[in-house]
Design a protein that fits this description.
Blueprint lengths: L9 H10 L11 H24 L7 H14 L3 H21 L1
Amino acid sequence: MDGLREYMSKEFNAFLKYKGIIHQCTTPYTPQQNDMAGRKNRSVMEISRCMLNGKKLPHKFSVKAFMCTNYVFDKGPTKAFIALLHIRRAMAQISSEKAG
């Protein structure tokens, strides 16, 4: 999200909380974070083009290929998600050791 407070209303935050979405903002005017988004977009575009070229599909399917690639990227695990899994496993192990 953009750190310029475009998406900071109480209603929007309540909606995100209701849906279980963690709201993370970037720091305004930080080119480093813009580079991360740019790299992801470049990766999505390159993979989309590879999908089209690999199946020899015409350019008119590029939007569908982009949407498919972006869907797969969004559903894949992130570093934060993997860290959360490790924390949950450790907490479960600690609680089972206390009980047993």
